[in-house]
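Below is a filled-in request sheet from our internal design queue. Each sheet records the structural input a requester submitted and the sequence that came back. We keep these sheets so that new team members can see what a complete request looks like end to end.

REQUESTER: design group, bay 2
PRIORITY: normal
MODE: inverse folding
CHAIN LENGTH: 327
BACKBONE (tokenized):
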């Protein structure tokens, strides 16, 4: 592991909190290959672990823009900026909106990184309501100052919508049973806390399912978080914006943590690197479409055993990188 990576790993995730360990850091550095003087955009700044390591590589002649809608990210940015070796600034927005702002200002980048899903500071802060293992208000908003909370959704959404979210976003086998149980429970009294929701889920699924495949609330909490924060909609908007922002030869890296994000990323990168879209039986290409990029990672890159042992959250991480074609 590089000296930069070792230094970043001991940076606190929150003041006085547990160490922040950026996932797949060595792989991100190796596959994006940052060079002195390059411009980096970290679309999901979080606690700044990836950003700090990339900034070390691009050095004083490079630059860094962080994007994050979570107000806690601004605190981490302020703590980090004094130690950044390059000019850096933070854009407070979801990453699709942030990328739109950079495009409107005609900015370009050599590296764009997206580290999707929850950050350590979000899941480790009980009162944010992201964790099914901690009692807290049922919130789950990445920006707590705006939008609809998870409690609002479970207490007002139709049974059909709840079922669809749990099935599509959480891939929950018992989506309909859980949605029906939620509607019954909220007719009696509101579902206000994480514990309230966990109790409903535990009562809705068959007993054998309580002891198989991890915590029974895991998939429902994931689905609600995705819906509350429009995570898939933002990713769909952001991927083309990020690629367009790249200079020729620039690299887009995306770390996903569940199959829906990874499939969307894989499809987007595959289409850019495919080129000709003519039917297979055409003897000569008639579309004239050329590849816009080259896949740096033919398959998703996963964490090695040692990293998973040191940081269990790396277990489900998948990294894909594409390089934009040279001019």
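RETURNED SEQUENCE:
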């Amino acid at each position: 592991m590089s000296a930069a990576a070792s230094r970043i790993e001991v940076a606190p995730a929150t003041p006085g909190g547990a160490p922040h360990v950026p996932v797949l850091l060595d792989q991100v550095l190796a596959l994006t290959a940052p060079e002195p003087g390059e411009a980096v955009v970290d679309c999901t700044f979080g606690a700044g672990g990836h950003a700090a390591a990339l900034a070390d590589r691009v050095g004083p002649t490079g630059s860094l823009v962080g994007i994050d809608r979570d107000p806690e990210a601004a605190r981490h940015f302020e703590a980090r900026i004094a130690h950044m070796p390059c000019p850096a600034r933070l854009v407070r927005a979801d990453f699709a909106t942030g990328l739109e702002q950079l495009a409107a200002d005609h900015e370009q980048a050599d590296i764009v990184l997206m580290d999707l899903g929850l950050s350590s500071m979000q899941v480790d802060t009980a009162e944010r309501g992201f964790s099914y293992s901690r009692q807290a208000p049922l919130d789950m908003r990445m920006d707590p100052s705006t939008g609809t909370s998870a409690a609002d959704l479970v207490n007002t959404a139709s049974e059909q919508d709840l079922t669809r979210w749990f099935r599509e976003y959480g891939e929950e086998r018992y989506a309909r049973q859980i949605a029906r149980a939620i509607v019954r429970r909220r007719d009696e009294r509101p579902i206000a806390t994480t514990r309230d929701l966990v109790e409903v889920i535990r009562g809705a699924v068959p007993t054998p399912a309580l002891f198989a495949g991890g915590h029974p609330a895991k998939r429902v909490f994931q689905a609600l978080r995705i819906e509350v924060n429009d995570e898939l909609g933002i990713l769909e908007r952001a991927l083309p914006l990020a690629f367009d922002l790249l200079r020729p030869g620039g690299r887009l890296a995306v770390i996903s943590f569940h199959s829906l994000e990874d499939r969307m990323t894989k499809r987007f990168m595959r289409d850019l690197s495919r080129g000709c879209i003519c039917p297979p039986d055409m003897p000569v290409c008639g579309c004239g479409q050329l590849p816009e990029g080259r896949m740096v990672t033919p398959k998703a890159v996963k964490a090695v055993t040692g990293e998973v042992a040191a940081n269990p959250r790396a277990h489900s991480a998948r990294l894909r990188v594409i390089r934009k074609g040279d001019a």
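SHEET NOTES:
- The first helix runs from residue 3 to 9.
- Confidence is low (pLDDT under 50) at residues 1-18.
FILED BY: M.R.
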